[in-house]
Every structure is written in C-alpha cells, then in structure tokens.
Specification:
The chain is α+β, with helices and mostly antiparallel strands. It is built from 2 helices and 3 strands.
C-alpha cells in the first residue's frame, strides 16, 4: 500500500481551496445579475421609495456590476449589505 506524498496532497488542497473561492465568487456574481430593476423591486416590496427590505434602512450604497466604473450599478443597503436592486442606464440611440 503506497501513501500519497505530501507535496501532492498540498497541491490538491490549494486547488480545492481556490475552487471553493471561485465558486463562491461566481454565485455572488450570479445573484448580482439576477437582481430586479428599481421598479420591480418597489412593486415586489410594496414601496414607493427604495428602502432595505431586511432592516428598513433608507441609507443605500451603489457599486458597479463588474467594476467600479461600470455604468450598470448594484444598489445595496449601507447598513446590512443586503443586495437590493440593479440599475441599468438607458441605452443611447446613435
């Protein structure tokens, strides 16, 4: 019976760890892309003004969908970091 050498176990552990990190990041990105737009969010939560559905805070923060300068914005609660809705700028006609 041969045992698996330590370097191979270490390499497998590193790859598995990175795989878990990438999987978590991918799921977060899918959640961001699946967020409703502002009107759908307001209608679904029976609100007239955007507020957090988890903690009822009116303080919101925004970030880019893929990077900071992305025009597509993700709006989240500034208090509890709950993802709320997505804002896509209107398409410009040429």
């Amino acid at each position: 019976m041969s045992s698996i050498p330590f370097p191979i176990l270490f390499i497998l552990a590193v790859f598995f760890t990175f795989w878990l990190i990438l999987r978590k990041f991918h799921r977060l990105e899918q959640k961001k892309r699946a967020l409703p737009d502002l009107n759908a969010y307001l209608y679904a939560n029976n609100q007239t003004e955007a507020r957090c559905k988890a903690c009822d805070s009116a303080e919101l923060k925004e970030e880019g969908l893929t990077h900071g300068k992305d025009e597509r914005r993700i709006i989240a609660c500034a208090s509890c970091n709950t993802l709320l809705y997505r804002f896509d700028p209107p398409e410009q006609e040429d």
